[in-house]
Design goal:
17% strand, 187 residues, single chain, endopeptidase fold (from Nostoc punctiforme), six-stranded antiparallel β-sheet
Length: 187
């Protein structure tokens, strides 16, 4: 049992940092994961995110490269990867560095977020939007990114909008740093 699993329920922080080898045992539908992978694409994502978040107070938020939405209490996730919108399990991140973000949502909001995410299963990953975002960030976010298709963060942002959460950017223009800033998650 890790230290994460022994936290008292009433003193639970808004997020829990799980280092490689640690895992969260109690998941809730509608919560999110912010993940830091170590492969080259993740490094590239973090590099572009740091270009957008240059201010010293924003730099820590460029830590993550991926995000996923919790589907149920059993630890199933909805996420977007190269295969599209898929269901996975939180245990696949056991050897990664991630933050489990506990969102304060009413049950109806959790259900709305999860229902939206489920409705997107098997839809395609939007490589076009990913490339447009990667080009737009160094240009000062000047390129319009269509409000279509899914990336890992845009799917989560759209699902959370269904739960009543609002964001400063359009979902297709968001990165993991935008989610981290919105919910006050620091590495």
């Amino acid at each position: 049992m890790s230290a994460v699993d022994t936290l008292p329920a009433i003193a639970a922080p808004a997020y829990v940092h799980c280092r490689p080898g640690e895992a969260i045992s109690r998941t809730r539908p509608g919560d999110i994961l912010l993940v830091r992978h170590k492969h080259w694409l993740s490094w590239l994502i973090r590099t572009f995110v740091r270009m957008r978040h240059r201010a010293p107070e924003e730099r820590p938020y460029a830590y993550w490269s991926h995000a996923a939405l919790v589907l149920n209490n059993a630890g199933h996730l909805v996420e977007v990867n190269s295969r599209g919108v898929v269901v996975s399990h939180i245990l696949q991140y056991r050897e990664c560095d991630y933050h489990y973000v506990r969102l304060e949502l009413p049950e109806a909001g959790r259900k709305a977020a999860v229902d939206f995410a489920r409705s997107c299963l098997k839809q395609k990953y939007s490589l076009r939007n990913f490339l447009l975002l990667a080009a737009s960030i160094p240009l000062g976010d000047r390129l319009p990114i269509p409000d279509s298709g899914h990336g890992c963060v845009s799917l989560i942002a759209r699902a959370l909008q269904e739960a009543g959460i609002r964001f400063e950017r359009k979902p297709t223009e968001m990165t993991p740093a935008d989610l981290a800033m919105r919910f006050g998650v620091t590495p």
